[in-house]
Amino acid sequence: VQLQASGGGLVQAGGSLRLSCAASGRFVSINTMGWYRQAPGKQRELAAVISTGGRPNYADSVKGRFTISRDSAKNTVYLQMNSLKPEDTAVYYCNADATVTLGWSATARAYWGQGTQVTVSS
Question: Residue 104 above 90 pLDDT?
């Protein structure tokens, strides 16, 4: 399973960006999808996730500003980021739980995209 993320960039505080992440490859299904972020010198943290049924869950720091959505037909997840703050500056990583086949069985595994840089200037 490959995850291709796009949409990062440089924006001024108060601005908006939209991230996209498309899953491709061989899998039975794409389950929960989400976005994590890692700021310099900090651990990777959850930004937002969305279930197969479309139920979102957000970190407190992004609630009310970020919106996660998905197009299950395209195996794509989006993150609309509004009212960006300098503290949102980080590398954003796409994550997906996928059910894949291994021989005669199926198993769920987590996959990560390559990361996309988001920089918010003050």
Answer: no
